[in-house]
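Write out structure tokens for Xylanolytic transcriptional activator regulatory domain-containing protein.
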Amino acid sequence: MTLVCTYTPSRRGLNRRNGKRAERSATHGNSPATETTSPATPTSFTDDSLARLRRMPNMQQEAGAYDNHTHTLPASSVVATAPWSLRSSDRSRLLDLFYTHFFRAHPFLVPKAFYPAQKYPRYLDLTVCLVGLQYAKPALEDAAALRDAVSLAMAESDERAVHRVQALTLYAIVLHSSQRPREAASCVGRAANIAISLGMNDPGFASTFARESPVLEESLRRSWWELFIVDVYTAAIHRHPAFQTSTASLQPLLPCAHTLYEAGRCEQNPPTLRNLDDRVFLADSHAAFSSSCFRVEAVRLIGRVSALAAADDTDPDNIQALDNALASWEYNLPPSSKDVVSASGEVDLMLFEARSIISCAVIFLHFPRSDLPATVPTASDIHCMRNHTQQPPISRQHSIKAIAASKNIANLASVPWPLEKHSPFFICALVLGCVVQLAAGSMHLHQCGLDCLQQHRDRVVLMLGALQRLGEMWPLAANAVRPLKTIAGIVLSARNEEVPSEPCSFQDSAIDPNESFNDMLWFDLFSAEDMQNNMLAM
């Protein structure tokens, strides 16, 4: 479920600084599998670009259309006027912010030392700068123009180019984290269709097009896997089907260790997905697998959970088999991957994200089958226990596992590492962790002592604080905090109050009477439409 905010289209044109002549933001040149270079990607829209996007078909129609057509940017569609560009100093600053705060969480472009030699097309270079813009403090003077430039470029027809896949993948992450899930899904669908048409999923693609550059070859492989991760993870969060990346018959070789990638010393013979799957049957099962491999494995598992839910599969054996797979993921990690923090104090972000994704998968599997309250409680529910109906004893196992997964997410939030260096995908994990802790707290309010409730409260306060900090960069986190705080105020501030003899209302708990959740399901906190109708319109 997603939280949605509405952006007012920018009314500033791209040529408002006619008196200025900015330097070009990126060098131009075609790389293998790149046929054209065109402008870049955004977070807000000019009137023209907004109108153009409104004419685009919906997400499902787009996916079908891109299956059947190859879109090449015609020469006539290129804007005749000179394209807007960033000042050289601003571009350098934003590029530094991208590599300082974002790159290690989503490391599929080349490492920073190799960036200038790639001569990425303008639209990809500006998309990288757009990501860096999320971390810019104070804000960039030309922020609105950058957003407009990227938006305009991403609204263009898609050429069959690896760089287009990379730009769309980056932009999808920004859109998802800016509470624009439909546009994010559209970008993922477009990127998936281009990638499949190019054959990026073929194990031989990267070596064929890498020009004998180990770093570029690794980047091409990572670009497919990052698209796969963004596709499957966002599909799981928003409960819609993934695109073709999860069903492709071929898959590239797996990513190497990040330290090797940064140094430009990539593995000569990376492992395959089959090697990763079969490692558990080998005597030396821990050799040659980077933490990026375990991140891929975690995303595959959350994809299986989504497929089970989509099929409405209630077969206990299938549910248990998936539960076993999630539990065994932890058992089959090598000893060096037991802790996300190394002896030197560095955090392995790939392993951090993998653990976060596994915890989300456990919650998605077990929370709907648990005896925890299914709906968001009102003040009267809390005091008068309307949500507490007896469930079959077997559901208690699901409750315990869902609560344990939410504890794991809270533990990850306490890892001593700057939050702004984590993936924005951690936002959804924090929301899920809060949801389970609040559901458990609303049930335990009348069933356990103050120590138990204090533990729920401390975890919720921790995760809300993390969301507030991430909200400084990403609207998704900022807008998640308000409804979660409202619910937490209902659930946790009531812990010391006596149960009243008469039914209570929102007025009784000093909560705004207009803030009714209307029997909203907990998972509806991730629904764009429901969240907008129930919370953000007030």
